[in-house]
Specification:
The complex is a heterodimer of chains A (652) and B (352).
Chain A lengths: L32 H23 L31 H37 L1 H15 L3 H12 L3 H28 L2 H8 L4 H38 L10 H11 L8 H25 L33 E14 L2 E14 L3 E5 L6 H9 L6 E10 L2 E2 L5 H10 L1 E4 L3 H4 L6 H11 L5 H14 L5 H4 L9 H12 L6 E5 L7 H18 L2 E6 L2 H7 L2 E6 L2 E7 H6 L4 H8 L56 H6 L3 H8 L1
Parallel strand pairs in A: 3-8, 3-9, 6-7, 7-8
Antiparallel strand pairs in A: 1-2, 1-4, 4-5, 9-10
Chain B lengths: L6 E13 L5 E14 L4 E5 L6 H8 L7 E6 L2 E2 L9 H6 E4 L13 H12 L4 H14 L16 H13 L5 E5 L7 H18 L2 E6 L2 H7 L2 E6 L2 E7 H6 L4 H9 L5 H12 L37 E2 L5 E2 L4 H5 L11 H11 L1
Parallel strand pairs in B: 3-8, 3-9, 6-7, 7-8
Antiparallel strand pairs in B: 1-2, 1-4, 4-5, 9-10, 10-12, 11-12
The chains are: A alpha/beta (652), B alpha/beta (352).
């Protein structure tokens, strides 16, 4: 429900998907220098390997003793070796051996590892146990040792050596595949596939395997480099490539003997090996960033802003605020760079919160509710900034305060509670440690005093047996109790204002009720003000004194809960109310057509008009001002009509 | 009704073996002795808190978990007796819509591929006809044709849930298990999905097992409602009866906890809610003896922890499992009895 998520237009993009974002394509990677360089180098190696007989200027095998150990020149660009063979040609043919060996071992590794990993992960049971013990054994054998052993049994030859390497690689592919399969198997889409009656093979290959491909491609790329190194090493030792093949490793071995006579000899194969392995590794890193979640590739795709979308809103009349106002937002605007342009995430949001009051901020996801809270706290996501307006907390202007001063205000004067209590608590520390840290960060209490304060706080939020529970970890708390602990943390420094962002959305109805009662109780006992962000008008009806309804970055209606919920004046508020099931069967629920447009495509005029059942031509003409707590040019007309249904009939 | 119900669940129990420590294992009884029927073209709503076993019942019907005891009969076939392999015909008849539409769709498959796979498995047809069929499905759940080419992350939450519904419809099922299908959605989107489900039921004569934790939502779509507490049904009956005049104290608690956007109605619910006993849901691993709800019940007396109440007729076609039904019925909304000290002490002893 986080409105922050709508800032980068990556997923939740575009009105009606017309301005659809391009899909991730592997070719997109080539636009980066760190991907382009290794990729083009590897392409060159590949071309050499495939086209060796045609590209190589000389025969790499026939000796020509006359030209022994020549320096680079016009005929032999990279010189010749001890038998007078052209180094460049040998280098080109060496690429063939190197890539063949690498691809063979990685191919074997992939085939064996992935198939066994899929089975072990999906089928589980004894198969899994056998596969994993086998993997443990394989992983304790050095690759070179196994290669030598296999050569001893199967006979000399690069193929046999790389078979051994492939078997060792299979273990890492098996582990990766199994780990991903174990995670994916628990996903609901796998359950759905089973319910559809898809065959296990189809589920494994068509449903699960594509999700393993990312990590596998990365691992394969890095393994290719490792395989190449092992091939070179084996050939250097004389057990890899035979005399019918040219290998960079055996070239190095020759170079070792004649280095004193021709110092350039080891440089050529050495560079080839280093550059190729480096390219494989760099490519692997780039692929990891691009394919795996959390990689550096989360760049924002540019979306061109149509000119003039950031329509300036009509100036709102500033109503005077009551004397006991704690928090006051005046014409607060937040803008963010989106792709090539700028989008207005919040447009002149004005609201006030009195001491001891609970204000509900409601609206659908993507309307700017959480963004408003973040702007108050000075915690805007990167790229977004306050473009105008003011935020005053009890006489202090927060806009423009240095970060250090804001940090003092957060926690000390403003407490914050988020939707998911388990995300707000660190799983590896006890509740006691976490609460003490919060207490001590904002006060001069010593450890013992902080502990005592933590017990007091837990008691305040109704956690039974608080002294004992300080030693517990977050996972030992139920969802409702965990949220109480988070609230306790927010109350640590007796803040004047508590901002609660969907504090009960993740909880069961009965637990939700308890947390709401706790908030009501705290407000009464501590005289705290609460800004409650929610999409549930039921929560508003239960806890709030006043409500502000947000749509598309603007406040569209404010008023007392009693009046707003029983006689909504803005069509959006009315539509939200109508959409709630109220326990009448067979009555169709009213819905709101379409969805909230993204910030760079706020409609012109009244931003709600494309979805509004009462919209007339005038609604699209110009921005509507917030007047008398409602932002609708037809508010008075609609109020005179008895019920919204009547109007719809008139309109039809 | 003389016709046999489409789905008949008879004294279903589901146990899970949990590992504890290095060697030991404990048994978690997720569902115990649950019985209910679903008529053709009707919706049975299951409500309860998390940990009440409502999803487990759905998964047992879908054969994603094994029943430990009891029978599940679908259209005359004993589902629990299928053995390891589930007949394809059953897979075609019974489908599912899960809560989280993001994880219930394969992130790497387009909407069209997902639907095509379902069609291929059960109703193989030439590619051209299949394309038409996919277009029809996409249209029937209110998506635009071009959205068949979309990947799940390119859709909004409500649209994803429509795709999940389309996938279930693709095989022309008779029963759809809806496991919290609207809990993760915004109010306006929730209304759209609920309307869609109701429309599809009318159009195709579908039956639903509708699992949710919000009684108002369940009431809106269901013909009958069952209320689960710690794996047992505590009340079951016609939807309007269970919703309008809850017989069981737990149903009353759920009703009082369900929020409504009407300040007057909500004030009454809040009033009743604030008089309730503040106790957490006991662990399903160690449910309280007797009536499992007695630790949180305002009407509980000493015998409630000694005696396990059975479901019994409570008027209006409702069955409820409570020893204090008449006392509960005599208490008007918003005025819960205050438990005597003696009862509180006894209950605390049990809990200690």
């Amino acid at each position: 429900m986080s409105d922050v998520a709508t800032l980068p237009p990556v997923h939740s993009a575009a009105p009606d998907d017309n301005a659809r974002l391009p899909r991730k394509s592997p070719w997109r990677l080539l636009s980066r220098p760190f991907a382009l360089l290794p990729a083009s180098f590897l392409l060159l190696v590949l071309v050499c390997a495939v086209g060796a007989p045609w590209i190589a200027p000389h025969d790499p095998f026939t000796p020509a003793i006359r030209h022994r150990l020549e320096a680079p020149g016009a005929t032999y660009w990279l010189g010749t070796d001890d038998l007078g063979r052209d180094m460049l040609s040998r280098l080109i043919f060496g690429a063939r051996t190197a890539l063949l060996a690498s691809f063979e071992s990685v191919g074997i590794g992939l085939a064996a590892g992935v198939s066994l990993g899929l089975l072990a992960g999906y089928v589980g049971g004894w198969l899994d146990r056998v596969a994993m013990r086998l993997a443990d054994v394989m992983q304790s054998i050095p690759a070179v040792l196994l290669a030598l052993a296999l050569i001893g049994v199967l006979g000399k030859g690069l193929g046999n050596a790389m078979l051994a390497v492939g078997l060792i690689f299979a273990v890492s592919f098996l582990r990766i595949t199994r780990a991903v399969v174990l995670a994916e198997r628990e996903q609901l889409y796998v359950d759905a596939a089973r319910v559809l009656g898809l065959r296990p093979a189809a589920i494994m290959l068509r449903q699960i395997l594509p999700n393993v491909s990312g990590p596998l491609i990365v691992q394969a790329s890095i393994s290719l480099g490792t395989a190449l190194l092992i091939e070179a090493m084996l050939s250097f030792l004389g057990v890899g490539a035979d005399s019918t093949q040219v290998s960079w490793g055996s070239m190095l071995e020759t170079a070792r003997q004649f280095q004193s006579e021709q110092p350039l000899l080891p440089v050529v194969p050495g560079l080839a090996i280093t550059l190729t392995v480096l390219s494989f590794n760099l490519l692997g890193d780039t692929l990891r960033d691009a394919l795996l979640p959390g990689g550096a590739s989360q760049t924002r795709t540019a979306v061109r802003l149509p000119a003039g979308t950031a329509a300036t809103a009509a100036a709102d009349a500033d109503a005077p605020t009551p004397a006991d106002t704690l928090l006051e937002l005046r014409q607060l605007s937040v803008r963010a760079a989106v792709g090539g342009g700028e989008a207005e995430l919040l447009s002149q949001v004005s609201l006030h919160l009195r001491r001891g009051e609970v204000l509900g901020l409601v609206g659908e996801s993507g309307c700017g509710k959480s963004m408003t809270a973040n702007a108050i706290l000075g915690l805007l996501p990167r790229g977004a900034q306050i473009a105008g307006g003011s935020v005053r907390l009890g006489g202090t202007e927060l806009v423009g305060l240095p970060e250090e001063a804001l940090r003092h205000i957060r926690g000390r004067r403003i407490g914050m509670v988020f939707q998911d209590p388990n995300a707000a608590l660190s799983p590896v520390h006890t509740i006691g440690t976490q609460l003490c840290d919060i207490v001590r960060a904002h006060s001069k209490l010593n450890h013992a005093q902080a502990l005592a304060r933590a017990v007091e706080l837990l008691d305040l939020v109704g956690v039974p047996d608080p002294a004992r529970r300080l030693q517990d970890y977050p996972h030992q708390f139920s969802g409702g109790m965990a949220q109480r602990v988070v609230i306790a943390g927010a109350l640590a420094c007796e803040p004047e204002l508590l901002i609660a962002d969907e504090p009960t959305t993740a909880l069961d109805v009965t637990i939700q009720a308890q947390v709401l009662d706790l908030l009501a109780d705290l407000r009464q006992r501590l005289g705290m003000s609460v800004l409650l962000i929610t999409h549930d008008l039921g929560v508003v009806a239960d806890l709030c004194d006043r409500v502000a309804v947000m749509y598309a970055g603007q406040i569209v209606e404010t008023g007392s809960v009693q009046e707003t919920l029983t006689a909504p004046r803005h069509p959006y508020t009315a539509a939200l109310l109508d959409a709630m099931p109220r326990g009448r069967a067979d009555a169709r629920l009213s819905t709101i057509a379409g969805r909230v447009p993204p910030a760079w495509a706020w409609p012109h005029g009244c931003r709600f008009h494309p979805r509004c059942a009462h919209a007339v031509a005038a609604c699209a003409q110009q921005p509507v001002a917030l007047e008398d707590g409602v932002r609708c040019i037809r508010a008075d007309e609609l109020r005179n009509a008895r019920t919204p249904i009547d109007i719809r009939e008139v309109a039809a | 009704m003389t016709e046999k119900p489409l789905l008949s669940v008879d004294r279903l129990s589901v146990d899970f073996k949990l590992k504890s420590g290095l060697f030991g294992s404990r048994t978690l009884s997720a569902v115990r002795d649950v019985s209910f029927d679903i008529e053709r073209g009707k919706t049975f709503g299951l409500v309860g808190e998390s940990g009440s076993g409502k999803s487990t019942i759905g998964r047992a019907v879908l054969r994603l978990v094994q029943a430990s005891a009891g029978r599940i009969e679908f259209d005359g076939h004993d589902v629990t007796a299928f053995g390891r392999a589930t007949p394809l015909a059953f897979r075609r008849d019974v489908q599912v819509v899960f809560q989280d539409p993001m994880s219930s769709l394969n992130p790497r498959q387009t909407v069209g591929t997902t639907l095509g796979q379902a069609i291929d498995r059960h109703r193989p047809m030439p590619a051209q006809r299949r394309e038409k069929e996919i277009a029809k499905l996409v249209d029937s759940v209110g998506l635009a044709a071009y959205q068949a080419q979309r990947l799940p992350h390119e859709l909004s939450g409500g649209q994803r849930q429509r795709v999940a519904i389309a996938r279930a419809l693709a095989v022309q099922p008779r029963l759809i298990v809806c496991d919290e299908p609207v809990s993760a959605l915004d109010v306006s989107t929730q209304a759209q999905v609920i309307n869609l489900l109701v429309d599809l039921q009318r159009e195709f004569g579908l039956s639903y097992l509708f699992i949710a934790h919000n009684l108002d939502v369940v009431r809106h779509v269901s013909h009958r409602i069952g209320v689960l507490y710690l794996g047992r049904l505590v009340e079951v009956g016609p939807a309007e009866q269970v919703h309008e005049a809850p017989r069981h104290p737990y149903t009353r608690m759920l009703m009082a906890s369900t929020l409504v956007a009407d300040p007057q109605v909500q004030a009454l619910r809040t009033q009743e809610r604030r008089q309730q006993i503040r106790a957490e849901l006991p662990s399903p691993l160690a449910p309280p003896p007797g009536c499992a709800f007695h630790t949180r019940c305002a009407w509980a007396e000493a015998r409630c922890r000694g005696e396990m109440p059975q479901l019994a007729a409570a008027g209006g076609g409702v069955e409820a499992g409570c020893l204090r039904l008449s006392a509960v019925a005599a208490t008007p909304q918003g005025q819960l009895p205050v438990r005597g000290d003696a009862v509180v002490r006894q209950i605390e002893e049990v809990n200690a």
